[in-house]
Design brief:
Keywords: DNA-binding, Transcription, Transcription regulation. This protein is mainly alpha-helical. The protein is 59% helix and 0% strand. The chain folds into three domains: 84 residues, Homeodomain-like (Arc Repressor Mutant, subunit A); 111 residues; 42 residues, no CATH class. It is flat. The N and C termini lie far apart (46 Å).
Length: 259
């Protein structure tokens, strides 16, 4: 490897790739980056990201806080390593051999949502740049696999994967918000607005909300008329429309090539 180029990597990224020598001092046998990250994730899964601190992790493991810093130098590095560990998913390419590109993309989106659902704290960490850690890049590679046989250039492939990832992130956040609402003791109707349907019908007027008004009055806005919903699941509907858009884009490209 080019050592000069390796030196340019952020420390957290270098740690994720195993490019940093372990400390010569400290509890070598009992302590490791993997154990620190695993403990941090367990705390975050149970209590949320705000509960994660170097002192809390050290206390849980039975070591001093300073001993942790010899392995993971900062909280930001720890968060990066936690995100990478959470992205350790396994989607075997062999299982996708008989799938068309649409089904592969569906599989990719659902895998992304599963990460967010399993680790709700994941989206609480600010995105600071392009993925550079191994597991995170593996997810990008899985997404690009669905575009492999499509007549797209590299920029188009990456943009489609970003679109799918963004949709998965948005849906995962909403699903987690709903779960938190229910765990807090609120009803599903308070989340959808169903519990407040009558009040909203009085508050929303056609002069102020001309396009929203008919949806509120019909009950669609608050899921009051859910049994008559012709589109089915909102998540599936949105995903299929994205895939329709990709398919339409591909047809336009083919048309241009013929001309």
């Amino acid at each position: 490897m080019d050592n000069e180029r390796m030196d340019n990597l952020p420390l957290g990224v270098a740690l994720s790739w195993g490019l940093v020598e372990p400390p010569k001092r400290g509890p070598k046998r009992e302590m490791s980056i993997e154990k620190i990250v695993e403990t941090a994730i367990a705390i975050a899964d149970e209590e949320g990201l705000s509960a994660v601190s170097m002192s809390r992790i050290a206390s849980t493991l039975g070591f001093t806080t300073m001993s942790l810093y010899r392995y993971v130098p900062s909280k930001d590095d720890l968060l990066l390593l936690m995100m990478d560990a959470a992205c350790d998913i396994d989607i075997a390419e062999e299982a996708e051999q008989d799938m068309d590109w649409r089904e592969k993309m569906r599989r990719f989106v659902r895998a992304n949502i599963n990460v967010i659902r399993k680790h709700p704290w994941y989206t609480d960490i600010t995105i600071t740049g392009v993925p550079m850690t191994p597991n995170n890049m593996e997810i990008a590679d899985i997404g690009l696999r669905s575009t492999r046989d499509l007549p797209l250039n590299d920029y188009e492939k990456l943009s489609i994967v970003l679109l799918l990832s963004s949709y998965a992130r948005s849906c995962g956040i909403i699903m987690n918000d709903l779960e938190r609402t229910l765990k807090a003791g609120k009803s599903p109707g308070s989340f959808t607005g169903f519990d407040y349907s009558d009040a909203l019908k009085k508050l929303v007027t056609p002069d102020r909300f001309p396009d929203l008004y008919p949806l509120v009055m019909s009950g669609v806005y608050t899921h009051e008329a859910e049994e008559a919903n012709p589109i089915g699941n909102d998540f599936e509907f949105g995903l299929e429309r994205i895939l329709d858009g990709v398919e339409h884009y591909l047809s336009l490209k083919k048309g241009k090539e013929r001309n």
